[in-house]
Hints:
Strand order of the largest sheet: 1-2
Shape: extended
Radius of gyration: 16 Å
Number of helices: 1
Low-confidence stretches: none
Amino acid sequence: MKQKIIRVGRHSLAVIIPAKFIHSLGIKAGDYALVKPHLEKGIVNIHFTGSLQLPLNLPSKRKK
């Protein structure tokens, strides 16, 4: 998923997380996230507190 980085306030930046993703994890405004940057790899891991596991998109079984 490609998201645009936006300015929030004078000295901060943010990434918008799409609503469908937020709802599937049960995240609400005011919840906390643990952010772990890995500068040498250019990666940021985000762990949401109290988040749920994403549902798997399994192929449906169709009756013939």
